[in-house]
Amino acid sequence: MLEKQVHTNLENKYDLIVGLEIHVQTNTSSKMFCSCPTGYFQEEPNTHVCPVCLGLPGALPIPNKRAIELCILMGLALNCDIDNEIHFDRKHYFYPDLPKGYQISQYKRPICSDGYIETTSGTRIDIERIHQEEDVAKSTHHVEKTTGREYSLIDYNKSGVSLIEIVTKPCIRTAKDAKDFATEIRKIARYLGISDADMEKGQMRCEPNISLQEKGKWKYKDGQILPIGDYKLNPKVEIKNIGSITAVEKSIQYEVKRLTKELDEGKEIKQQTRGWNAEKNITGYQRTKETADDYRYMPEPDIPVIEVSDADVERISEELVELPVERMKRYIRELGLSEYSAEVISSSRESAEYFEKLYERLKKDLEEKEAALEASNWLMGPVFAIGNLDVGIEDLALLILAFKKGRITKNKAEELLNQSVKENKDLSKELEEVIRQKENLINNLDEIVREVIKKNTKAVEDYRGGKQATLGFLVGQVMQATKGAADPNEVRDILIRELKE
Amino acid sequence: MKIDTKHIAKLSRLSLTKKEEETFTPQMETILESASVLQEVDTSKIQPMKTRIPFKELREDIPERSLKQEEVIRNAPHSENGYIRVYGEIFGGIEES
What we know:
The structure holds two protein chains of two kinds. Chain A is of the alpha+beta class. Chain A has 16 helices and 18 strands. Chain A has helices spanning 2-12, 65-77, 175-191, 245-264, 310-317, 324-335, 339-346, 349-362, 368-386, 393-404, 410-422, 427-443, 445-455, 457-464, 470-481, 488-500, and strands spanning 14-25, 81-82, 85-86, 89-92, 102-105, 112-118, 124-134, 138-143, 150-155, 162-168, 204-214, 218-221, 224-227, 237-240, 272-277, 282-287, 298-299, 305-307. In chain A, helix 6 (324-335) packs antiparallel against helix 7 and helix 8 packs across helix 9 (368-386). Chain A is elongated, with a radius of gyration of 32 Å. The N and C termini of chain A lie far apart (79 Å). By secondary structure, chain B is of the alpha+beta class. Chain B is built from three helices and three strands, in the order H-H-E-H-E-E. Chain B has helices at residues 5-11, 18-35, 69-74, and strands at 52-54, 79-80, 83-87. In chain B, strand 2 and strand 3 form a beta hairpin. The interface between A and B is large, with 60 and 42 residues. Strand 18 (305-307) of chain A pairs parallel with strand 1 (52-54) of chain B, so a sheet runs across the interface.
């Protein structure tokens, strides 16, 4: 009842306004401002650290070229403007996971700005900025059993790992669009080798900013939400601690309900940060947010201005490939795939490239649309079921073509594929063997039919006496004798011919 | 020049007594006033002093050896199983950014 009420109020009274901040750890071998190795996952604590990432006095940051290349690459993929100068700033706050007392980040001049992408459902999402920064340490919180004192354990291995922050404009209007956008960023990061973007490992973190505004009382102009007349905009709520793409959608849906209720009850909404609780599917109050002034940003004096030339950007852009949404659209438009198949296949670069190779090979023997359909069906069915893309393209293509030419049944083809994977056998050789055996049997089909007629005198009499139905039984007998290899229609024809004599 | 000592202390995770607040506030205001003389200088025609470096001269992404865990822990007043241990009161209620 309440759900319905809230839903109606949202539809009629309020608009949902969401902006998304996505942090992505980029795939470098060394940290952002020092040469410590990055691969800290499941490593001993405090073994990937040095004076720079521990914030020891006098240690100086030295920016990682590859990290900045990956930031620019993401900017290019999201159609951003790339600045020709890179400026770093210090963002100050005090917390044990930040040993210097400030994070090196970018304030007024991010490397990439003013971009956009389209999600799979065709919604355009505007990008405000992408900037380069460094990750903080990992801390876990505990209580001393004897004294009840609270303490934290800190592992600085993550401190200083290269991190980019992608910020959208407040242009997202539904929880699903937010989820789709996050999904697209993850796909692009993986396509371009920018990051593995595994949310469970913390390589990608999403923080939605959410507000509800009364319908007709606001407008979206130059990337900002502006009040109309004397309307006072409701403040934003930021959600942290989101550990999966689905939680992006769920947490926004939860906040919509919570905020709608608060507004309907006439409560004043405070700008705040809330944490997502994935077990209870709710958000909980964390803190009131510090404002930009509180971070006391200042230019980072230890890092010079980095000059980026057109040639640098040009060189980085050579790493771009056709991106998932473009691929998806091309598969639908040119190859006639269904929207669903096109989206699934294009969702990873590996499956898209496998599909395209298989399609190119099948196209030599089949009509284009048919080649695309078979490639898509076989990839999404039996190949995905295997769980990897190790089956050779040529082997798989020969198998598909044998089925298309009626030399083996689809069931037999799939069985062969699974068997050769399971027993690590050469698929093409297995296929040849099966076809050879089958052809032997079929060559002897006349003889087998005569044998069956000889053995089933009663049935033959019945048939000749006018019981047409008996023919089915005889066909079955022949099929059994050929272990299912023969074509039942052909068997039927031969039987009729032989029984006339 | 007015200064919100309470707010500054909070951002620095310091807890000040009422008496400390009363002592520090005028002191900090005096410091700010002295420094504010600098704001009278016209810098509109002066380029910020920043050294510049071409992109291609940045550090290559090659990992090197880090410190040993015992070296890292050595400076910490408290540690536990290779982790650095810190006590929470001064950071109370503040979440990581």
